[in-house]
């Protein structure tokens, strides 16, 4: 049952849809899909889509995509990033954020970051598979990195990539540890600890596999750099 909107949210039996979030924070509510009951997920998607004309969900499954598509035929799904979305055509994008990965196994998390930032209006330049085991690949893109308003560096294994990038650029680096790696990687903990302990200045760290969080913060930085942070 859906009740009337009240005090900036829509009261439902199982959710309170935050209709004032974009006005407060500059970002509309995003749906974390994993673990939601089917009918709850579909109804929340419908409510946000109907109100905003677009909708964005993370960590969705193929089965959830099929369910939502029955109600919102325009919805699209990316099986790599697991993003389920519909965005308004012709959306303006500003600035320049680079999303770099150490390896191709990190691309799923990187795409979550990249597509989140794109949805919120950021121009993205992708630099994939530029990890430290072949450092010349990264150094050949130094000009691209230095021109960005910020860089999202996504890495598993030992997580060294953000430290290297942090020593090359003057703008913020957002480090994203991934759970990619062998046993001693501890599901991304080794990469996380490397990034937290970096000696490079200007590197901040989000949680393991948290591409969404990185894309969100990168957009905030990008908006400020472009004079659109108000």
Polypeptide structure, described:
Helix content is 36%, strand content 23%. It has helices at 21-25, 38-52, 62-71, 107-119, 135-139, 142-146, 161-166, 189-196, 211-225, and strands spanning 2-6, 9-12, 16-18, 31-32, 55-58, 76-78, 83-86, 94-101, 122-127, 150-155, 173-177, 203-205. The chain has a 5-stranded parallel β-sheet. The protein has a 4-stranded mixed β-sheet with strand order 4-5-7-6, with helices on both faces. Strands 1-2-3 form a 3-stranded antiparallel β-sheet, with helices on one face. α2 (38-52) packs across α3 (62-71) and α4 crosses α9 (211-225). The longest helix has 15 residues, at 38-52.
Helix and strand string, N-terminal first? Answer: EEEHEHEHEEEHEHHEHEHEH
Low-confidence parts: none
Beta-strand fraction estimate:
15-25%
Mean pLDDT: 93
Number of helices: 9
Helix fraction by DSSP (H/I, runs of at least 4): 25-40%
> How many runs of DSSP E, i.e. beta strands?
12
Distance between the termini: 37 Å
Strand order of the largest sheet: 9-8-10-11-12
Give the biggest sheet.
5 strands, parallel
Give the helix/strand class.
Answer: alpha/beta
Q: Which term fits the overall shape?
A: globular
Please state the CA-atom Rg, rounded to the nearest Å: 18 Å
As an assembly, this protein is: single chain
Short characterization:
The protein is of the alpha/beta class. Helices cover 36% and strands 23% of the residues. The strands form three sheets. The chain has a five-stranded parallel sheet. Strands 4-5-7-6 form a four-stranded mixed sheet, with helices on both faces.
